[in-house]
Design brief:
Blueprint (H helix, E strand, L loop, with lengths): L5 E2 L2 E2 L4 H21 L13 H4 L12 H12 L21 H13 L10 H17 L7 E5 L2 H14 L6 H4 L7 E6 L4 H9 L7 E4 L9 H13 L3 E8 L11 H11 L2 E5 L24 E4 L1 H4 L7 E5 L2 H8 L28 H35 L4 E3 L7 E6 L6 H17 L6 E5 L2 E7 L7 H17 L2
Parallel strand pairs: 4-5, 4-6, 6-7, 7-8
Antiparallel strand pairs: 1-2, 3-9, 8-9, 10-11, 11-13, 12-13
The structure holds pyridoxal-5'-phosphate.
The site of pyridoxal-5'-phosphate (PLP) has 14 residues, from α6.
């Protein structure tokens, strides 16, 4: 279709009228989708390659009407979507595209700023700083922390550990590279997220540069084991430089004893990074503030608003007490980017040059729901987690596999007379049956080798009836697995 602003020199974009009409249609589509998402199978049922085969091999030569684009969203794309917006999405960590967040993405796309320098969009830079300061206060971190938005916790942790390496006296990897730098060692627990190891790979430390510390019976890093590992490593020529503690581990949401780890870091001059990607959000609740104990000493900390704060993916907040070190790790200004203002240029604090306007969606989510509104919803999620755990605890056919600090429950089904390997297989079968039904979606993990099912409450639209449905489905399918 030629649109009304097609000229001999090509399209001049849609006319305002065309944009309004298409925009209204899309907003209606989104409203309908969110209204009806509960009716769709949570886990997509397509096979690998199905979606690809349903799409043309080449781009269209001539423009198509917006109605055709929308039609394919329904007919081609939707069947291949696993619905993270579904209230019965209990896998991994639930995330939500809330209405204010979705509209925030639209506003950001419309403005299309690139905040590499302060002057290339002052609002983008300054709103980001202000919103991250709001969030810092909400989760009880001290004043004076520098915050920056990245896409994911993985990238936040990568940047934090680059700063940690930059902070090692006399190393200067920035100039000299790693060869001849000595063997740097980073410590994290056996329960830490894989992003810590990925950062080590990317930074050239290698997997050998990561030493995994054992955890206690509740999957929390053992400070004494850390202290011993550091001592041992120093004695054999390693250069210990950083510890990555976790507040809310990925499998069980356990919380490392950050206060004690911070003492070791201070004593040993190690950079303390805290990965609070999921559980950081819980700290907006006064009754969950305990989970951040010791984090005031962290040199850097990451938490993901896109995880449990109803902000559409992606948005990860990286905080540091040493912005000058982070800047030293990444600051590199070619002539064409020189600028004279006394202002923060966000390109100096990470890998990427171009930066989109991520702060708007978070700003709108915080303003639209308010801190009290968000607290109520997170409190309800934690209540639902505890409720589900109480059903598990009260049923002889199920067994709880870890404490429930927040809204995630690790458990397995049991049958009398089976050994661990058989129980692993049965639980695997059970999970497959549960997810194939399409009404709920759960995921799994392994704890000390044992196959464990995992129910995570985190979607804005999840109510008690949804958790109850998951429980009903699990009980029914347990009866069918044999
Ligand atoms: C989810 C999660 C991550 C990874 O988050 P991304 O934003 O997807 O990179 C890292 N650490 C923890 C503890 C997490 O829960």
């Amino acid at each position: 279709m030629k649109n009304s602003t097609d000229t001999p020199a090509g399209p001049r974009d849609w006319s305002p009228e065309e944009f309004r009409a298409a925009g209204r249609e899309l907003v209606d589509w989104v409203a309908r989708y969110l209204e009806n998402v509960e009716e769709l199978p949570v886990l997509s049922r397509v096979k690998p390659g199905d979606i690809r085969r349903a799409l043309p091999r080449s781009a269209p030569a001539e423009g198509e009407p917006f109605s055709a684009l929308l039609r394919d969203l329904d007919q081609v794309v939707l069947p291949g979507v696993t619905h993270w917006n579904h209230p019965c999405f209990f896998a991994y960590f639930g995330i939500t595209a809330s209405a204010p967040g979705i509209l925030g993405e639209l506003a950001a796309a419309a403005l299309n700023t690139n905040a590499m320098l302060w002057r290339t969009s002052p609002s983008t830079t300054e709103l980001e700083q202000v919103v991250l300061d709001w969030l810092r206060e909400m989760i009880g971190l001290p004043e004076g922390l520098f915050g920056i938005l990245t896409d994911t916790a993985s990238v936040s942790t990568l940047c934090a550990l680059a700063a940690a390496r930059e902070a090692v006296p006399g190393l200067d990897v920035r100039t000299a590279g790693l060869s001849g730098a000595g063997r740097l060692r980073l410590y994290t627990s056996t329960q830490a997220h894989s992003s810590v190891e990925k950062a080590a790979i990317t930074l050239g430390l290698g997997l050998a540069g990561v030493r995994k510390i054992e955890t206690d019976e509740a999957y929390r890093m053992l400070p004494a084991a850390l202290a011993e590992a550091v001592r041992e490593d120093r004695a054999s020529g390693w250069i210990p430089f950083a510890v990555s503690a976790t507040v809310g581990t990925t499998s069980t949401t356990s919380v490392d004893p950050v206060e004690e780890l911070a003492q070791i870091c201070r004593r040993e001059s190690l950079w303390l990074h805290v990965d609070a990607a999921y559980a950081g959000s819980a700290a907006i609740l006064p009754e969950y503030r305990w989970c951040m104990a010791g984090c005031q000493h962290a040199d850097s900390l990451v938490t993901n608003p896109h995880k449990w704060l109803f902000t559409p993916i992606d948005a990860s907040a990286l905080y540091t007490r040493h912005p000058e070190v982070l800047r030293r790790a990444f600051h590199l200004v070619p002539d064409y980017l020189q600028s004279s203002e006394e202002a923060v240029n966000l390109m100096d604090y990470g890998v990427q040059l171009g930066r989109r306007f991520r702060a708007i969606k978070l700003w709108w989510v915080l303003r639209a729901f308010g801190v009290e509104g968000l607290r109520k919803r997170l409190r309800e999620h934690c209540r639902l987690g505890r409720l589900f755990a109480s059903w598990i605890d009260g049923d002889e056919g199920f067994q709880r596999m870890a404490p429930v600090p927040f809204s995630v429950v690790c458990f397995r089904a049991t049958w009398p007379g089976l050994d661990d390997a058989q129980l692993d297989q049965r639980n695997q079968d059970l999970l497959e049956r549960v997810n194939a039904g399409g009404r709920v979606y759960l995921s799994h993990t392994r704890l000390r080798g044992t196959y464990v099912l995992r129910l995570a409450v985190g979607n804005l639209r999840t109510e008690e009836r949804h958790v109850r449905l998951a429980w009903d489905v699990l009980q029914a399918e347990r009866g069918r697995v044999a």
